[in-house]
Write a structure and sequence with these properties.
about 220 residues; mainly alpha; 2 domains; 9 helices
Length: about 220
């Protein structure tokens, strides 16, 4: 295997491993030693450093070294990003998983919007993003990084349930009972128009920015660019 790909694997394993370690087994001791604000600062710095390694290793690895899935794969990857962005855009409002003072109160409310689909809309948006890049079958570097980020999102969501259960008790127990870990895709039809409007705007913006940031066209820009 190419040395650049080996480094990329190491960078992704480090990023995912540090995220899990600091979010779960090390969190209590780090908060005890540093306080909540200190922990947040260290967590952010370490995560950014690991992410920077992923980015540099990704750029150093070969691009376009797989056969690609052609127009069919590109269309599928493009289309599934729209519901992914709807989940992402709707995940910031009324989300009891967010670290906020009224989280327990939000967990006791009836789910609405994207939370009718899943209680982890942001995590699933990242997982669908990962799937879209795997579908493209464009390069080994993309497959490695997308698989790592998808694993982080879905396993992280499961571990978040355990952590929130410990932190919030009955409030989270009730929230779990009224929501689903796995996406109930039929509920996408009843999440309201706002997440879809946000999704379309983000889809257009990210499609336009993908070339200067990612180096290749994304979505409809493959044909328009």
């Amino acid at each position: 295997m190419d040395n650049a790909l080996i480094e990329l694997i190491a960078a992704n394993v480090t990023f995912v491993g540090l995220h899990f370690a600091m979010s779960h087994p090390l969190r209590a001791s780090m908060v005890g030693a540093l306080g909540e604000k200190g922990f947040a600062g260290v967590y952010s710095l370490v995560s950014l450093a690991a992410l920077a390694w992923v980015i540099f290793a990704f750029r150093a690895a070969p691009s376009g070294d797989l056969g690609g899935s052609g127009d069919a794969g590109w269309i599928a990857a493009t289309l599934i990003m729209i519901p992914a962005l709807a989940l992402f855009g709707g995940s910031f409002s009324g989300n009891p998983a967010m670290p906020r003072p009224d989280a327990a109160e939000q967990a006791m409310a009836e789910p609405r919007g994207v939370f009718l689909v899943t209680r982890h809309p942001m995590m699933w948006s990242f997982a669908i993003w990962a799937l879209s890049h795997i579908l493209l079958f464009w390069s080994m570097r993309t497959m490695i990084t997308a698989a790592a980020m998808g694993f982080l999102a879905l396993v992280g969501a499961h571990l978040q349930d355990r952590k929130k259960q410990q932190q919030m008790g009955e409030a989270w127990t009730g929230w779990q009972a009224r929501t689903s870990y796995w996406p109930r895709l039929g509920k996408l039809l009843v999440i309201g128009w706002k997440p879809w409007a946000i999704a379309i705007v983000l889809w257009l913006v990210f499609s336009w920015l993908h070339r200067p940031i990612g180096g290749i066209e994304a979505g409809m820009m493959r044909w328009l660019g």
